[in-house]
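Saturday, quiet lab. Running sequence design on the structure tokens for the scaffold JK sent over.
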């Protein structure tokens, strides 16, 4: 599977994920949302937006559990966001991780100095070009997949986690297992691409693992990380990646940008050439890494996380603790350069006639019909049509159209049915009635609205349904005003707190039934007269007719009984 996706069973076709995705990387097929990996930047906004928690994240926890059971070193590289995540218990995290089976625990920012040196070198370039930091993997994928022309503006250096993972492989051996733990989903993609990273866990996954093992940080003692770099502890905050860049001799302005929409806006401006001579520290997550999608919903705000990180830095400065810092220059032959590849997959461009045809299929024939409401997840109706053309969306994702279609169908049924329909509120006032009902009562819809139902019908059945909140179905009733006979039902609609009176006029059927009844009675009477006459004749010529008379009487009597039986068995 791709690094993230949605559960087919839980997806309810609400399009919340489509609306949340900043790069339209979600396609809807057969009413099922699916992530298009060729467009996905791993920002995780779709998963946070899903109201049904239908997310599926690539499971790596079981692999890590296997690592710690086997022989060999297993090392954790922990993103500095942990301070904001665990707060007052952050100093106990190393203890907890070693209880889980890790042989060594280091801060990811141990590898940040090498990376920051490269950022500083680009900030000193004497050219008018804009450059972009490459520490946020979602930013890298945003550029590679959607703005490939800007690849020359990405600073060609690996992220701190890759740098640190390569350092750990040198320190603990190439057979050691390196597990990154952080707040980021896109690091799972980066980890899959980088051979020095064996697995990536989010803090959310880590907390679930701790809970499974019944390990509670409150109960543990403090222990230091095996390697730290407290001067880079600001890394997860906005502007933190370039905070340690020396300001002397800089030729470029350094501007932090957080939030994917803000990043897109800056990238567009760079493409248009309206920005010059700036080094942008970009992070797709609002508030940078402390707002990452891989954090648990523990109720702690990003502002609390920021304060814990600031407090931690102050404490480290007071203690003068570089805390077992690595002399990174002792690492020999560490390769930290990186090449970026254009991964842009252009969408097929439909002709204007094809766009108009798709728009017409959802009732949009003129520009005035194009509401551009965005409920489908696309900013304009034309963008949605292009998505449909590319197989990324379905026409029925247009909510205004589907609502109009449903309302139109309901109105057609309401207006065309021969059944009598009246809608009544709890105050027993008429809200609406259909043409059949208006014709039946010899009135008009307009003249009846807001009038009491007792003008037309007895209120007993409505009071019964209102009080019991139970339907009355198929009740035979004579309507007082018209002296017509109907089969009526009153339905309670809880959601709208109204009652629906539905009736079928059976007056003609009743009249026909009475006519048939009269004909049958006449037939019975005639049969009786024939019997009587026959018996009189029989008495006069009994000697001549004999058994024939008896047979005639039996036959006619059977006919009479047959007619009567039909009446008795009639439902």
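Result came back. Writing it out in full:
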């Amino acid at each position: 599977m791709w690094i993230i996706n949605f559960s087919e069973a839980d997806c309810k076709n609400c399009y919340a994920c489509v609306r949340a995705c900043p790069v339209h990387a979600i396609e809807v097929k057969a009413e099922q949302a699916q992530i298009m990996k060729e467009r996905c930047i791993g920002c995780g906004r779709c998963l946070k937006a899903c109201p049904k928690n239908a997310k599926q994240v690539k499971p790596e926890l079981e692999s890590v559990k296997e690592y710690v059971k086997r022989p060999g070193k297993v090392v954790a590289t922990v993103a500095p966001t942990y301070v904001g995540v665990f707060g007052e218990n952050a100093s106990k995290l190393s203890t907890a991780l070693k209880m889980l089976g890790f042989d060594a625990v280091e801060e990811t920012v141990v590898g940040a100095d090498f990376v920051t040196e490269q950022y500083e070198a680009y900030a000193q370039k004497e050219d008018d070009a804009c450059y972009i930091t490459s520490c946020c993997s979602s930013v890298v994928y945003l550029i590679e997949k959607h703005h490939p022309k800007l690849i020359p503006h990405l600073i060609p250096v690996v992220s701190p986690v890759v740098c640190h993972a390569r350092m750990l492989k040198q320190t603990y051996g190439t057979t050691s297992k390196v597990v990154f733990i952080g707040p980021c989903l896109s690091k799972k993609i980066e980890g899959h691409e980088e051979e020095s990273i064996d697995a990536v866990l989010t803090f959310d996954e880590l907390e679930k693992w701790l809970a499974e093992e019944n390990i509670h940080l409150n109960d543990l003692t403090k222990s230091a990380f095996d390697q730290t770099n407290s001067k880079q502890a600001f890394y997860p905050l906005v502007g933190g990646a370039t905070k340690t860049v020396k300001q002397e001799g800089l030729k470029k302005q350094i501007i932090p940008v957080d939030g994917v929409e803000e990043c897109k806006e800056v990238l567009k401006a760079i493409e248009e050439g309206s920005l010059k001579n700036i080094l942008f520290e970009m992070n797709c997550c609002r508030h940078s890494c402390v707002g990452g999608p891989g954090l648990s919903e523990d109720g702690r705000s990003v502002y609390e996380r920021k304060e814990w990180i600031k407090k931690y830095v102050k404490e480290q400065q007071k203690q003068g603790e570089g805390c077992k810092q690595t002399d990174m220059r002792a690492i020999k032959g560490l390769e930290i350069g990186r090449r970026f590849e254009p991964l842009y997959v252009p969408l097929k461009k439909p002709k204007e006639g094809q766009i108009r045809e798709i728009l017409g299929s959802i009732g949009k024939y003129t520009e005035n019909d194009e509401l551009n409401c965005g409920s489908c997840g696309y900013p304009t109706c034309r963008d949605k049509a292009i998505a449909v053309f590319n197989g990324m969306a379905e026409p029925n994702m247009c909510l205004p159209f589907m609502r109009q279609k449903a309302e139109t169908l309901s109105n057609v049924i309401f207006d065309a049915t021969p059944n009598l329909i009246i809608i009544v509120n709890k105050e027993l006032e008429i809200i609406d009635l259909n043409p059949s009902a208006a014709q039946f009562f010899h009135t008009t819809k307009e003249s009846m609205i807001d009038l009491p139902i007792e003008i037309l019908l007895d209120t007993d059945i409505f009071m019964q349904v209102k009080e019991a909140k139970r339907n009355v179905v198929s009740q035979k009733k004579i309507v007082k005003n018209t002296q017509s006979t109907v089969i009526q039902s009153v339905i309670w609609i809880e959601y709208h707190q109204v009652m629906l009176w539905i009736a079928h006029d059976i007056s003609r059927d009743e009249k026909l039934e009475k006519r048939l009844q009269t004909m049958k009675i006449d037939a019975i009477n005639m049969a009786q007269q024939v019997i009587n006459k026959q018996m009189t004749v029989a008495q006069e010529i009994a000697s001549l007719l004999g058994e024939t008379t008896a047979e005639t009487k039996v036959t006619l009597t059977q006919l009479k009984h047959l007619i009567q039986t039909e009446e008795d068995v009639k439902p």
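Notes for JK: Residues 507-540 form the longest helix (34 residues). The chain has five domains: 1-58, 59-288+301-330, 349-409, 417-505, 514-569. Ask whether to fix the surface positions before the next round.
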